[in-house]
Write a structure and sequence with these properties.
Layout (H helix, E strand, L loop, with lengths): L11 H51 L32 H13 L14 E2 L5 E9 L2 E8 L2 E2 H11 L9 E3 L8 E2 L2 E4 L1
Antiparallel strand pairs: 1-2, 2-3, 3-7, 4-6, 5-7
């Protein structure tokens, strides 16, 4: 008597089902990564909008830009470690006054964080720094919010949200073209 052995293995239908499931999982992961990236860019835009609102609120309340405030150390909120640095009152937030701008905004309650006016910088979602100061970039000069070290793709996306998406025109400008895979060292949106 011969015993019949059943061959074991997967049918084509079973393999097709497994392949569909794997495809769905890969698609979900990729879509999730795109959603995370989109949320980070939106976070950058929100950070910029919040800083602009804080700068103009400070200017409305005190008549000067944060960081450039020559009376900062005499303000009612200037106690203890708050507002140990004053600006020169020129109307321009110089690079040297940029860190003081963080301190003045935080001490006056317009942004969250603890800044000492001389060494503590803000950071953004991608790990670079954020500064409020004046500079010239792509032919435009003025007070601005600067994002340091963004990937070109991220800088371009932010430029599209806040402005025109072109690195040499509009209120947002970058130090270099938005070439995929490169880093934009200096991205500014002027106030």
């Amino acid at each position: 008597m011969r015993s019949e052995m059943k061959e074991k293995g997967f049918t084509l239908v079973e393999l097709a089902i497994v392949m569909v499931i794997i495809g769905l999982l890969i698609g979900a992961v990729l879509k999730g990564q795109a959603m995370i990236e989109s949320a980070k860019i939106k976070n950058l835009a929100d950070q910029y909008n919040s800083l602009v609102a804080a700068v103009y609120s400070y200017q409305d309340k005190y008549g000067v830009f944060p960081g450039d405030d020559s009376s900062a150390t005499a303000r009612s909120w200037a106690t203890g470690s708050c507002a140990t640095t004053a600006g020169d009152g020129s109307g321009v937030i110089s690079v040297a006054e940029g860190l003081a701008a963080n301190e003045h905004l935080a001490c006056s309650g317009l942004i969250k964080g603890s800044y000492n006016g001389t060494t503590t910088a803000m950071t953004h979602t991608y790990g670079g720094t954020v500064a409020i100061n004046s500079a010239t970039l792509q032919g435009r000069t003025g007070n601005s919010v600067q994002f340091v070290n963004l990937l070109a793709e991220n800088a371009e996306s932010l430029d599209r949200i806040l402005d025109d998406g072109v690195y040499t025109t509009g209120s947002c400008r970058a130090n270099a073209a938005y070439t995929a895979g490169t880093t934009i060292a200096n991205f500014r949106c002027f106030l």
